[in-house]
User: Fold ADP-L-glycero-D-manno-heptose-6-epimerase from Azonexus hydrophilus.
Amino acid sequence: MKTIVTGAAGFIGSNIVKALNERGVTKIIAVDNLSKAEKFKNLIDCDIVDYIDKQDFIERIQAGHFDGDVEAIFHEGACSDTMETDGRYMMENNFRYSSILLDWCLDQDVQFLYASSAATYGASSVFREEREFEGPLNVYGYSKFLFDQIVRKRLALQPSSQIVGFRYFNVYGPRENHKGRMASVAFHNFHQFRADGKVKLFEGSHGYENGGQMRDFVFVGDVAKVNLFFLDHPEKSGIFNLGSGRAQSFNDVAVAAVNGCRKAKGEAPLGLAELRAQGLLEYIAFPEALKGKYQAFTQADLTKLRDAGYDAPMATVEEGVSQYIDWLQAHV
Assistant:
C-alpha cells in the first residue's frame, strides 16, 4: 500500500515526506506542480516511488488508477498566497480539488489528512474550532473555510472514516526557500540580516498588548509530528488547530533570528533593547495593502488537539527559530 502526499515538493508537504522517510516509509507518491521548478530541491534528500503532476493525478484518481492501493493521503497541496485575488483559481485549486480527493478517500476507506488554515478565523479573537468564531478575511481563507464545512457534513454522515483537518497557524522552518514573499518572518529576518546587517519590522511588532501584532508561530517539525500522530490513530477524526498554543511578537522572532546569526559568528546574544540601540532592528510603516486583510492577533486553542491525545510540547519561538537558523546556515 502506498501513501500519497499532495504538495509534496512544497513546504509542509516535503517535511511530511521527510518525516515519513525517517520512520521507514518510502512507498510515497509525490504529487505537485513543478511549474516553479526550484521546489524540486525540497525532495532531493527524500525517498519516493513516483512523482505525478497535480492535474494528471486528479484525472487518474477519478479514473480509478489508484483504487485499492492507497493507505493514506496527506493533502497539503493548495494555493497558500493570502494576497491572491483570482477567486475562481483559488476555489478550483483549494476547494474543488480537495472535494474530489475527499470523496475518493471516503469511497475507498483511505485515511484523509489535509491542510486547513487559521485564516478561517479572520478577525476573530477566539481561535476555537467552532463555526461561530469563523469569518475569513480573504478568498484564500474562504476556500479553506468552505471545505471545512463540507468535511463537517461528511463526518456526520460517515463517522467511521478518518478525515482530519489541520488549521495551521504561522508555520516556519526548513524547506520554505521557494515561497518568496509568502515565506515565514523568520526566513525573511535571516536573509535580511545576512544581507543588510539589520532587520526591519512593521510598526506594531512589539506586541498586541501595546496595540501591535502577536501571532502563533509554530515550528514545521511539530506540524509533521502531529500529522503522523493522526496517521497512527485512524480512529481519530475532526478539525484541529495546529499552532504552538502561544502568541508571541514579531520582535521575539527577530531577536531569535538575529541571535541565531550572531551565534554562528561566535558573538554573544543581545536583548531587544540592545538590538534596537545598536541599529540592528528597525521599524517601518505597516503596508496599506495589508490593512483589513491581516490577522493582528492569533493564538491557537489546543484544547481539542490535546483532548485527542497529542500531548507532546510545542517549540517556542526561541527554540524553533534557533533550530531553523542553524538549518539555514547549513543550507544557504
